[in-house]
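Slide 14.
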Amino acid sequence: MIWVCTRCGYEVESEQRPDLCAMCYAAMHHMVPKKVESEEKPEEKKD
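Slide 15: predicted structure.
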């Protein structure tokens, strides 16, 4: 899983949420899971 710091934008790959950001030393609650954009396109409506 990739975690992103909401203060500085630093990304780190880890199984568990990091205790501190390695770049700006922000607390654990600033580390949020990175949203992965799906490659699938929404189905188009056919009339």
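Speaker note: Residues 19 and 28 are 5 Å apart (CA to CA).
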